[in-house]
Design goal:
Order of helices and strands: EHHEEEHEHEE
Distance between the termini: 26 Å
CATH topology: Aminopeptidase
Shape: globular
CATH class: Alpha Beta
Number of domains: 1
Helix content: 25-40%
Strand order of the largest sheet: 1-2-3-4-5-7-6
Oligomer: single chain
Strand content: 25-35%
Length: 150
């Protein structure tokens, strides 16, 4: 990946990647997808990034304020043909660094227990498992993680 650009949630490349992410998650989540989709709206996201390889959008992610000290990593996605090449780690690091620039001290995130590659990515990047939080508290297919940014 050559560039990670900070964009708005209305960015066409971001929207196209999120469409692919949502299609993937709909298949993965099955009957539970409506529950998860309710928490993944992009119109309220103010801090969005798109990763490019040779001017082609290949990855996306966002951060969302939880409280004065905490951001949530949201909408992480890498095109299948670019997985296993360090793209997700680069995007995750870019989002963490953005959070630090904005003064946040902690990042949290939620992913599915059905996504072992994502779980491995977060563990590899020093995220540790925490109890399910907020809207995910009773979502048995969710696994939540946290990382101190400072």
């Amino acid at each position: 990946m050559t560039d990670i650009l900070r964009v708005s949630s209305e960015n066409d490349d971001f929207q196209k990647l999120v469409f692919q992410l949502d299609s993937y998650l709909a298949k993965l989540n099955g009957d539970e997808n409506d529950f998860y989709a309710a928490f993944n709206k992009t119109n309220l996201l103010q801090h969005v990034a798109v990763g490019y390889s040779e001017n082609m959008p290949v990855a996306c992610g966002a951060i969302k304020k939880i409280d004065q000290d905490t951001i949530e990593i949201k909408r992480m996605y890498v095109l299948p043909e670019f997985r296993g090449k360090g793209v997700a780690t680069a995007m995750l690091k870019a989002l963490e660094n953005w959070g630090k620039e904005l003064g946040y001290k902690r990042a949290v995130l939620e992913t599915s227990i059905k996504m072992p590659e994502a779980i491995n990515l977060y563990r590899k990047n020093k995220y540790y498992e925490i109890p399910r939080y907020g809207q995910y508290e009773n979502a048995l297919c969710s696994i939540c993680f946290e990382k101190n940014l400072w």
